[in-house]
């Protein structure tokens, strides 16, 4: 078996590697305006410390910013701001009284962990509630009354919300148009790839683009009929791309490159979507090309021009969302275990903070909460990146304080650090810490007297918080270093099996075609999520990281199986019949055996493969995946042997 297309380098290299994403200039500009303007106005009026307090109120919006529809962003940013204000008020009311502040912070930490299970927006809001509760407990040292501090905070928060949403009326559907256009751009890029590794990366990017576009559009459709019609047209245009996407994946899997006229047409579709202009006529299938894959691709292009007519999906009521969240808390212990770990570590941090002789020791608790935040990936990786980012950020802050920057120079520096934080959010967690650290140092230095003590306290407290996380939340916490990735891989085998059942039968109704499309999206999204989860774990030097490295060829094999299934499904009904039910059952049984073997931590049994020339590609890829699970020539050991070594009892991981 050949070496997988992903060669895992040293864990630290993986940890420090930034994501290759474009710079979000719109977020950079909004962050700079939101944080620097209150300082500039206050400095012009003669009291820059007041501007620093208002700038603190703008932080929840800046830290919660994310790409998406304006309706989605309004709900996300509004919820985060309200949660941050609530946490800040609790901190203000209990600050200076350890008998009250310590239980309050621990309780808020536990509640925030439970709220995180309710979804992405709830998770971000819960984090802001905890962060600003901790910051609020330290504001008593300013000597200002609670209502004054809270008023400044609210003014800054309202200002940042206005900046974030001011372009709503003139660019209401621009994010959605960009998301749909990106699908066609990635589709053209995949078809123009000249080698297998490049085409595979392009297919991953296409999957991500489609998931992002569907997420944005399904969230975006509001109860306003005029705006809803626009969103629905975009959703129909996105849905119409499905046949072309399936045919393109099949063609790339077969090692074929699409004609230049097809690539040019898809690029033109992207431009037309962005400009809200009618689409040009698609190219016609050459008469001398009877290949079923080419026929499927050109038919898909015609479908893009015609568009789909999807009906509106009823929105989920807030009451139903609350019920789903409550059900998730009752059904499984994972959320409670995460909440317990966060609560214990925060309690330890609060006790340590009382004993540390440095000023501003509340940063210990703050660091623990941010690093241990549920659903944010590897605890080990975040702790290391937080520490490295803080050291770099403290160095920057120290230089700024050493040169004695004041006045308008500080305003410009805070704008620059705010923009850097916006870039760090999408590139690398350590980069985020590098820019947020001097930003907070300068804000706290302006709000209170002192300079070098702030720098020293920030460094010592953050390193202490990271050590608490690494020792108590990672090294000593039961199960934190055990591999827990096999179960997710097994679930992905099940998703691909469901896709096989939908893709390998001939569809004659719109409902059946829609079901197949949904099964394909579910399978590819599961694979994309699986890659993300493994990339988060692979940075750990623990057995979990080593097992993730060993499992990587299995993930690559499962992706190739899925592509081969797509190739078969595209050709059905174009002069070729569907595979027999018995052949389909053999494929799904093989996938089920792989899933069961992973869950039971054993080598998979040999399974019969379909004796059908049209399924030869699927059978070959399945055979390679069986070999990868058994691990004949992986990096060191079979991933199953690693599981049995570090998880001696048979249980689903």
Tell me what you see in this structure.
The chain has 653 residues and is mainly α. It folds into 3 domains: 11-171 and 376-448, no CATH class; 175-310, no CATH class; 485-635, no CATH class. It contains 26 helices and no strands. The chain has helices at 11-16, 25-45, 48-64, 70-94, 98-115, 120-137, 146-165, 174-191, 196-220, 225-239, 242-253, 260-275, 292-306, 318-331, 334-355, 362-371, 379-402, 408-427, 429-447, 452-475, 486-503, 510-537, 543-571, 581-600, 616-630, 639-646. The longest helix has 29 residues, at 543-571. Residues 1-11, 222-227, 632-637 and 645-653 have low confidence and may be disordered.
Protein topology:
Blueprint: H1 11-16, H2 25-45, H3 48-64, H4 70-94, H5 98-115, H6 120-137, H7 146-165, H8 174-191, H9 196-220, H10 225-239, H11 242-253, H12 260-275, H13 292-306, H14 318-331, H15 334-355, H16 362-371, H17 379-402, H18 408-427, H19 429-447, H20 452-475, H21 486-503, H22 510-537, H23 543-571, H24 581-600, H25 616-630, H26 639-646
Helix pairs in contact: 2-3, 2-7, 2-18, 3-4, 3-7, 3-19, 4-5, 4-6, 4-7, 5-6, 5-15, 6-16, 8-9, 8-10, 8-12, 9-10, 9-22, 11-13, 11-23, 15-16, 15-20, 16-20, 17-19, 17-20, 18-19, 21-22, 21-23, 21-24, 22-23, 23-25, 23-26, 24-25
């Amino acid at each position: 078996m050949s070496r997988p297309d992903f060669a895992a380098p040293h864990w630290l290299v993986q940890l420090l590697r930034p994501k290759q994403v474009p710079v979000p200039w719109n977020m950079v500009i909004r962050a700079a305006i939101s944080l620097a303007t209150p300082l500039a106005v206050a400095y012009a009026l003669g009291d820059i410390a007041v501007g620093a307090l208002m700038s603190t109120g703008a932080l929840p919006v800046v830290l919660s910013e994310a790409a998406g529809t304006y309706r989605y962003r309004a709900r996300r940013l509004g919820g985060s701001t309200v949660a941050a204000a609530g946490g800040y008020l609790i901190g203000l009311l209990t600050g200076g009284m350890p008998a009250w502040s310590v239980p309050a912070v621990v309780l808020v930490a536990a509640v925030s962990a439970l709220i995180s299970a309710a979804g992405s927006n709830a998770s971000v809001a819960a984090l802001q509630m905890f962060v600003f509760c901790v910051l609020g407990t330290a504001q008593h040292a300013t000597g200002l009354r609670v209502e004054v501090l809270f008023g400044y905070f609210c003014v800054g928060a309202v200002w940042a919300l206005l900046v974030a949403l001011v372009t709503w009326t003139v660019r209401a559907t621009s994010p959605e148009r960009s998301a749909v256009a990106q699908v066609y751009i990635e589709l053209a890029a995949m078809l123009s790839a000249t080698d297998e590794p490049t085409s595979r990366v392009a297919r991953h990017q296409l999957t991500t683009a489609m998931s992002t576009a569907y997420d944005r559009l399904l969230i975006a459709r509001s109860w306003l009929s005029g705006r809803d019609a626009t969103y629905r047209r975009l959703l129909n245009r996105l849905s119409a791309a499905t046949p072309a996407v399936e045919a393109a994946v099949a063609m790339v899997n077969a090692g074929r490159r699409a004609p230049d006229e097809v690539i040019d047409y898809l690029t033109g579709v992207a431009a037309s979507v962005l400009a809200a202009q009618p689409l040009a006529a698609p190219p016609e299938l050459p008469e001398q090309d009877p290949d079923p894959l080419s026929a499927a691709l050109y038919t898909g292009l015609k479908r893009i021009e015609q568009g789909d007519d999807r009906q509106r999906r009823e929105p989920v009521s807030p009451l139903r969302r609350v019920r789903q969240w409550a059900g998730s808390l009752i059904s499984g212990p994972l959320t409670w275990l995460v909440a317990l770990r966060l609560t214990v570590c925060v309690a330890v941090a609060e006790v340590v903070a009382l004993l540390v002789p440095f000023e501003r020791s509340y940063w210990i608790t703050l660091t623990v909460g941010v690093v241990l935040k549920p659903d944010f990936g590897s605890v080990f990786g975040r702790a290391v990146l937080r520490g490295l980012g803080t050291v770099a950020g403290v160095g920057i802050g120290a230089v700024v304080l050493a040169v004695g920057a004041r006045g308008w120079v500080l305003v410009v520096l805070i704008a620059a650090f705010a923009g850097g934080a916006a870039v760090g959010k999408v590139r690398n967690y350590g980069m985020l810490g590098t820019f947020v650290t001097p930003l907070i140092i300068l804000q706290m230095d302006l709000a209170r007297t002192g300079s070098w003590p702030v720098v020293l306290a920030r460094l010592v407290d953050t390193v202490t918080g990271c050590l608490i996380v690494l020792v108590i939340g990672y090294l000593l916490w039961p199960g934190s270093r055990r591999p827990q990735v096999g179960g997710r891989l097994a679930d992905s085998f099940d998703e691909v099996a469901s896709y096989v059942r939908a893709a390998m039968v001939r569809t004659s109704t719109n409902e059946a075609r829609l079901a197949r499309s949904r099964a394909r999206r579910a399978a590819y999204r599961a694979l994309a999520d699986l890659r993300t989860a493994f990339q988060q774990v692979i940075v750990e030097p623990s057995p979990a990281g080593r097992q993730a490295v060993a499992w990587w060829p299995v993930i690559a094999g499962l992706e190739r199986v899925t592509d081969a299934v797509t190739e078969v499904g595209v050709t059905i009904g174009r002069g070729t019949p569907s595979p027999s039910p018995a052949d389909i059952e053999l494929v799904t049984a093989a996938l089920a055996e792989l899933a069961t073997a992973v869950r039971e931590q054993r080598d998979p049994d040999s399974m019969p493969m379909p004796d059908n020339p049209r399924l030869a590609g699927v059978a070959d890829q399945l055979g390679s995946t069986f070999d990868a699970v058994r691990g004949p020539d992986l990096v060191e050991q079979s991933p199953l042997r690693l599981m049995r070594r570090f998880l001696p009892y048979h249980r689903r991981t």
